[in-house]
Automatic annotation (TrEMBL):
UniProt superkingdom: Bacteria
Keywords: Transferase
GO molecular function annotations of the record: transferase activity
Name of the featured protein: GNAT family N-acetyltransferase
Domain BioF2-like acetyltransferase residue range list: 185-325
Coiled-coil ranges from the UniProt annotation: none
Species of origin: Telluria aromaticivorans
InterPro entries assigned: Acyl_CoA_acyltransferase (IPR016181), BioF2-like_GNAT_dom (IPR038740)
């Protein structure tokens, strides 16, 4: 947390050019109605807030600016209510530099865009405008940004905390280049499993279903595999029947599904989304009966090679299992949630949020300390490693017990309905 009550942003408001975009002369931004310049520079951005409105030009420019499915309007329409969303646009002539969607509720501005790349200056520019336009706003909340505030000269009191972890493969070359970058153990191991699978199941086939070829039945098969995999792990499924139509609709416009079939049956599937040259793995699952063939790793590799052939420059493989995904040349990328307060008094008035973030940061620091200690080859390190193992085992036992109870209650409820 940092606070500098006097440092001006006037010398730092010249933001870099994010990208080239087509002119949007027919948009309201080109009508000459510019908001007052608050940066103290003549070459500062033109800033505008569209209250409770998402102008038509926003959909295309969101994807061009951020290349991210998680802030696209296509996804937002499916997963969130569009009521009450306002738009902030920073432009330079006919070029949009950045735009932010947000909601205002009870003195809090919550940014709808997530997993996007913003600079510290972008956040300061947005905060300046919001605090000027809305005097009653106490704080601004950003969720999971690819941004870290480093400057002690940042104008406002703020908190930031690691919110999400992504494992990202950065592509520089073609499929053969990627294969050469993989460790020989990983590459040869997967090839060995593929040869064994083909030998045992000659009907083995890898197939891609892109956009219009994605069907409800296909997505249902993916969800069914996920349920089988989670049941094998004695965990409840994180996807329900109500998510099938939503996933299918988004995949038909922004995605594809890769599958491995054996005897005509889908035994492994990977549902991915894409925006321009960024691809996002969303659901990957395989039939536990084929665990001995490492079918999940086979599908991962073939899906990555397909993504590269489709022009991918980055492949996001979701968080978790970082060591396993590192075999595929994925690197961890941490996304921060940031809260910006108008004043210290407003932070005090927002004390539940402030304290919650402080406690979360303390808990994260404790987990990192324990993880580091558990890797030390000495008596304290071995003790901590044992303690961590017992804790994980206890959590697994509780998870299995909860799953058994949940299954029993569901079966009993279904039985009551049939009487």
């Amino acid at each position: 947390m940092h606070f500098n009550p006097v440092s001006p942003l006037a010398e730092n408001m010249g933001l870099h050019k994010i990208g080239e975009h087509e002119p949007f002369l027919d948009s309201p931004l080109a009508d000459g109605q510019r908001l007052p310049n608050r940066s103290g520079r003549s070459d500062a951005y033109a800033l505008r807030v569209y209250e409770n409105e998402i102008p038509p030009f926003v959909e295309v420019h969101l994807e061009k600016l951020y290349d991210n499915i998680y802030c696209s309007l296509a996804r937002l329409r499916l997963y969130e209510s569009m009521e009450g969303i306002s738009t902030f646009v920073a432009s330079d002539g006919n070029d949009i530099r950045f735009l932010i969607l947000f909601r205002l509720f009870r003195g809090v501005v919550k940014v709808v865009n997530q997993q996007i790349e913003l600079r510290e200056h972008d956040i300061a520019c947005f905060a300046n405008e919001i605090f000027a336009v809305y005097p009653g706003v106490r704080r601004i909340e950003f969720y999971a940004l690819n941004c870290t505030i480093h400057s002690s000269a940042f104008q406002y009191l703020y908190q930031q905390i690691q919110q999400l972890e992504e494992n990202v493969i950065e592509i520089s070359g073609n499929g053969n280049d990627y294969l050469r970058q993989l460790g020989s153990k990983t590459r040869c191991g997967i090839q060995k499993y593929m040869r064994k699978t083909v030998a045992d199941f000659p009907s083995y086939r890898f197939e891609v279903f892109a956009q219009d070829r994605v069907t409800i039945d296909l997505v249902s098969a993916v969800v069914r595999l996920t349920e089988m995999r989670m049941k094998f792990k004695h965990k409840p499924s994180y996807l329900g029947a109500d998510s099938i139509a939503t996933l299918a609709k988004l995949a038909r416009t922004h995605g594809y599904i890769t599958t491995i079939t054996i005897d005509g049956e889908i035994c492994a599937a990977n549902l991915c989304f894409k925006v321009r040259d960024r691809h996002f793995a969303q659901v990957i699952a395989h039939d536990p009966r084929f665990n001995q063939y490492a079918l999940g790793h086979q599908l991962n590799l073939q899906s990555i090679l397909y993504s590269i052939s489709d022009g991918a420059k980055e492949i996001w493989m979701m968080g978790g299992r970082s060591e396993e995904k590192a075999r595929f040349h994925a690197r961890q990328r941490f996304l921060n949630s940031i809260v910006v307060y108008r004043t210290r008094f407003d932070a005090l008035c927002s004390w539940p949020t402030f304290i919650r973030i402080v406690l979360r940061k303390r808990a994260m620091s404790a987990r990192r300390f324990l993880r580091k200690k558990s890797l030390e080859n000495n008596n304290p390190g071995r003790f901590v490693a044992r303690l961590v193992h017992l804790t994980r085992h206890a959590r697994a036992v509780v998870g299995k017990a909860s799953h058994v109870v949940w299954t029993f209650l569901a079966a009993r409820r279904d039985g009551d309905h049939t009487e």
